[in-house]
Amino acid sequence: MNKAILIGNLTKDPDSGQTANGISYCRFTVAADRNYTSNDGTKATDFLPVVTWRGLAENCGKYLKKGSKVGVCGSIQTRSYDKDGETRYVTEIVADEVQFLSTKGDSSDSDFGNEDLPDLPEVANKKPQFGNVILDGKVPF
Question: What's the predicted TM-score (pTM) here?
Answer without folding.
Answer: 0.71
